[in-house]
Amino acid sequence: MTEARFKSVEKFYLKVSICMLIAMPALLLVGLFL
Structural domain of residue 17, as residue ranges? Predict the structure, then answer.
């Protein structure tokens, strides 16, 4: 795997993990209110 490709994959996973960090508490809150 080339360096540039690894960097883009790393950036993608960083975005996904940030989205998960935001989504998980939101889903928990929604679950509490339902």
Answer: 1-34
Classified as helix, coil or strand, 10 is helix
Is 2 in a helix, a strand, or coil?
A: coil
**For the chain, what is the domain count?**
1
Is pTM, for the whole model, over 0.90? no
- What span, in angstroms and rounded, lies between the C-alpha atoms of 9 and 7? 5
**How many Å apart are CA 33 and CA 2, to the nearest integer?**
46
Count of CB atoms within 10 A of residue 10's CB?
10
